[in-house]
Amino acid sequence: MATNEEALMWVEKYRPKTLETVVNQHDIVESLKAFMRNPKTMPHLMFAGIPGTGKTTTALCIAHELFGMQNWRNFTLELNASDERGIDTVRERVKDFSRYSRGAFGDVPFALIILDECDQMTGPAQTALRRIMETSSRTSRFILICNQSSKIIEPIQSRCAIFRFSRLDRAAMIEHLKDITKKENVNISTEAVERIVDYAEGDLRHAINALQTAAAYTDGAAVDEKIIAQVIGEASPKQVQLMLNKAINGDFMEARRVMYDIIGTYGFTGAEIIRQMQKELFKISYISPEQKAELSNILGEYDYRLTQGANSDLQLSALLAQFTKVGKSLGESS
Hints:
alpha/beta; Helicase, Ruva Protein, domain 3; Zinc Finger, Delta Prime, domain 3; 3 domains; 5-stranded parallel sheet; 5 strands
């Protein structure tokens, strides 16, 4: 058992098993606990929000609490609708499972159907699902999980209690990652953990995967910010800020040299550099919000050009030239 546990990816090994241990979604968890106290009152549920915020984990925790850790699989059908998203899946697997009651489990008179990524289901499949949800409410409850609830047809949304999962709080993510590092005996600096959290942007799954990769990369050695930068494929914020500052202050050639240093060191694409420029731009304190808006508009224009197949080197150089031009006008106005 220990060997199997060690072989697990950390996102699975440390996936919460109960609602109590779900990270940071306190309001949602409290609402769901009310249903758990009287399962007969539980409606169909819809969990919507960005990836890595605990939607699937929360659905599995509900299954664990309703049916117990040993029995939940016997009373739960779990499907990923992005893989099995056609009408045949709905008509065959979902309808067959929901049609027949599996017998009451204590106070729970229904089975559970979890449809992950259901915003990828086709229109006909969603229409068929709507009818099944209506006719099988005596024997089944559905938990629909999606990134964008707007892609789910209104008749399905109206049959569900909708819970919207927000990005995880930065402090909660840091605490959770530090807890994992203690359990895994990973020697990591606080700055490195914070760098992972900033990179993940509220996606806890992304953060845990980056942490495990960094721990494997160092093979027992201490994990620092430099290692994290290599693992996550991001340039040092100081380097990107240096490039921005050189351009805004009129030193185009030096800004361009720093840009090529970043490309040579990290092997970034133009789009990845622009994404980091956008992130670091808003940390610069000496330019106003209006000026940041103008520079963001320039970033957006050159990002679009790259998506249309323009030459990366030429466009990044032209982008820095535009920053230099805007920086010159800022200096003249001041």
